[in-house]
UniProtKB/TrEMBL annotation:
It is found in: Golgi apparatus membrane. GO terms for biological process: cell wall organization; cellulose biosynthetic process. It comes from Lactuca saligna (Willowleaf lettuce). It is a multi-pass membrane protein. UDP-alpha-D-glucose binds at E51, D80. Mn(2+) binds at K218, D242. Residues 1-31 are annotated as: Disordered. The active site is at D80, D384. The keyword tRNA processing does not apply. Pfam families: Cellulose_synt (PF03552). GO terms for cellular component: Golgi membrane. Thought to be a Golgi-localized beta-glycan synthase that polymerize the backbones of noncellulosic polysaccharides (hemicelluloses) of plant cell wall. This is Cellulose synthase.
Amino acid sequence: MVRSVLDVDSVGPMESDPPSDLQTEAHPKNRFGNELPRVDLFVCTADPVIEPPMMVVSTVLSVMAYDYPPEKLSVYLSDDGGSELTFYALTQAAIFSKHWLPYCRNYKVEPLSPAAYFKSAASPRDHTKHRQDFIVIQRLFEDLKNRIEKVTNIGRVPKKLRLEHQGFLEWDSFTSPRDHAAIVQILLDHDEDTEGHSLPKLVYMAREKRPDHFHNFKAGAMNALIRVSSMISNGPIILNVDCDMYSNSSDTIKDALCFFLDEEKGHEIAFVQYPQCFENITKNEVYGGSLRVLREVDFHGLDGIDGPLYVGTGCFHRRDILSGKSFCNSSDQGSKLTDWKSEKDTHCNQRETENIQILASCTFESDTEWGKEIGLKYGCPVEDVITGLSIHCRGWKSVFHNPKRNAFLGVAATTLDQTLVQHKRWSEGDLMILISKYSPAWYGIGRVHPGLLMGYMMYCLWATSSLPTIYYSIVPSLCLLNDVQLFPQVSSIWFLPYAYIIISITAYNYLEFLRCGGTTRGWWNDRRIWLYKRTSSYLFALLDTILGSDLSFVISSKVIDTDVHERYEKEMIEFGVSSPLSIAVATQSIINMICFLGVCYKINV
Ligand SMILES: O=c1ccn([C@@H]2O[C@H](COP(=O)(O)OP(=O)(O)O[C@H]3O[C@H](CO)[C@@H](O)[C@H](O)[C@H]3O)[C@@H](O)[C@H]2O)c(=O)[nH]1
Ligand SMILES: [Mn+2]
């Protein structure tokens, strides 16, 4: 039985002319006044230890503070860690938001995350009202931080504090993060801020977890969010961000809507993807964490042919399309964004959440199309890319929007091991897509533009590039040691093609990196990290896929201890823990070293 709570057919034609560019006067807010669509904002977190609640609620506060009518906004936090610490932090953030949002509105604050704002903002000079307000809000924020960090440090919420919110009763029957009932708590229901303006809705959700039910990682959380939000606010537009990716620009929602509401092309667009940018990138990025060429070249290229991949965060989706709607099934070949004025405004208060909890239960999805035809796809560690591909296969297009001021800023990996583990997940996921139902090698043919298919293939073949790379980084050294001639002599004419290829590729790659704003040292580091990734992450991803290992999702840590942080700032490579991935890198270096010493010895004797 297909059970969907989503009314995907409720899409009608639009009444007014949408704007077609990002000019201020054409911004949706100015053209549509108060008749803008509702937007649901999803933040996902999964572990209060490696994703500290203070960081999570700063992200939540940042998306609550968008310059967009707050009565049209609903913010949902999905907590896969089912942690009362995160819930406590959210209850406190809800109180703080009553001060923070008016402050952002009155003083046009950027960035919208209070943690990021107070890290960089200097107190306004003179005895202005702004200065007084700054001091007050800064003190409130310090209080908030102290309260949350105190509770996080002791690892539980003291009894006295639990009495402050009845939501804590849910944790009375709580066994463990892997074994608990669904929790849905509406913390703000368009309450008023200190100036009497409405606040966005704020909802906490921890979906049900049972040891005998596979929970499908972030894809499972997102699907539960889609269902739960459909009963509470049902915004036709959904933004999803990871818990570290705070909003850095208050205009982002309006910018994204310009694409969806565009008169000529808007009806074809399923999602608007912003680049993943990071706050903690050092000048020469020792782990190549900024992915700058991917952001500044690859994705813009894909944008020219039907649009970029969906990369899981900083992405606006149309709810109906994310839920499975096809381009060709819709009456007018694509469809304009919901006629949101006539759309029913679902309202639900805390007393009614019991019915909603069913939507976040383990069993709700049994024998349904969720994870297959509805919502985000299951069975792949890069649920984002495979979901985006399936949307492209259904005939929709996407847009890459890379504004000058970064729209979102997150935390990039800060150790070698984290980098290698993350890339193993990504390359393994991409390879699984190649052999999945949606493979760009067969299913996509005829459905997706050949250029875009090649774009997908580039990522799908990452894991397989490990084999030639390992070959080229070991065999020539062994040949050198054993006097086996692998390449033509430098004096031979046959050497020219080799020289041409190596020099031109390297020069092109170097210039491209510089053009994207990188440094020479950064390029060198980037080359090195690609070699490491290819010979370890990609190799293990390939082996795990061939051997059919169990699906896993190692969550990247967003905390960093002081020593490691210092070394990261100094751009020293952090070997830290020993893992099979670093062993692969070390083995390869040792082989090369032995060959090199062997050759030196031979020359000398
Ligand atoms: O069971 C899980 C596992 C993860 N997450 C959340 O998923 C997000 C991404 O996890 P992270 O460890 O930060 O992975 P990254 O490699 O940084 O994430 C990139 O790659 C993922 C796919 O591999 C995408 O889901 C992400 O959106 C994308 O930013 C985080 O907010 C997590 O809290 C869950 O909600 N439930
Ligand atoms: Mn992340």
